[in-house]
Structure formats: C-alpha cells, structure tokens
UniProtKB/TrEMBL annotation:
<dbReference type="InterPro" id="IPR013321">
    <property type="entry name" value="Arc_rbn_hlx_hlx"/>
</dbReference>
<dbReference type="InterPro" id="IPR002145">
    <property type="entry name" value="CopG"/>
</dbReference>
<feature type="region of interest" description="Disordered">
    <location>
        <begin position="1"/>
        <end position="27"/>
    </location>
</feature>
<dbReference type="Pfam" id="PF01402">
    <property type="entry name" value="RHH_1"/>
</dbReference>
<feature type="domain" description="Ribbon-helix-helix protein CopG">
    <location>
        <begin position="34"/>
        <end position="73"/>
    </location>
</feature>
<dbReference type="InterPro" id="IPR010985">
    <property type="entry name" value="Ribbon_hlx_hlx"/>
</dbReference>
<protein>
    <submittedName>
        <fullName>CopG family transcriptional regulator</fullName>
    </submittedName>
</protein>
<dbReference type="GO" id="GO:0006355">
    <property type="term" value="P:regulation of DNA-templated transcription"/>
</dbReference>
Length: 75
C-alpha cells in the first residue's frame, strides 16, 4: 500500500490512462454506454487502485473482463 501511495504522490494530476474507454471497443458502432454497477466499497477501491497501477481505467478493465467472460461463456 505504501508503494501505491508513493506512485500516487509522484503521478501528475493530468496523467491520463493509456487507452481511452472509447478505444477499448472494437468498432465505431460500439459507442460506450453508461452503465451503473454496484460493487462492495472495498472491491471498488481495490479496482480503482488496480486501474491506477495498470495505467488504465476502471471502465476499460470491466469491459475487458466482460468480453472475456462472455467469450468463455459462449464456448
């Protein structure tokens, strides 16, 4: 946790994720849609920290996980 605090302290406030959420989707017709997801507070906090660590966004991580889950489910 101390490492994360150090990284957050070093990060500039204008640091943007490597990929925009819109770039996560495969085609121009797959425009991002706002969806509300209810997560336990601890899980949401861990997910936000992981997104910072990965220089990504929570939306991009959740989209990737959903795609992976749906692909696995369709097999």
């Amino acid at each position: 946790m101390a490492d994360l605090s150090k990284k957050l302290a070093k990060a500039s406030p204008t640091t943007a994720p490597k990929k925009r959420v819109a770039d996560t989707f495969t085609t121009a017709t797959d425009k991002p849609t706002r969806t509300t997801v209810y997560l336990p507070a601890g899980l949401a906090k861990r997910l936000k920290h992981a997104a910072i660590e990965e220089e990504s966004s929570v939306s991009a991580i959740l989209a990737e996980l959903a795609e992976s889950w749906l692909e696995k489910k369709s097999r």
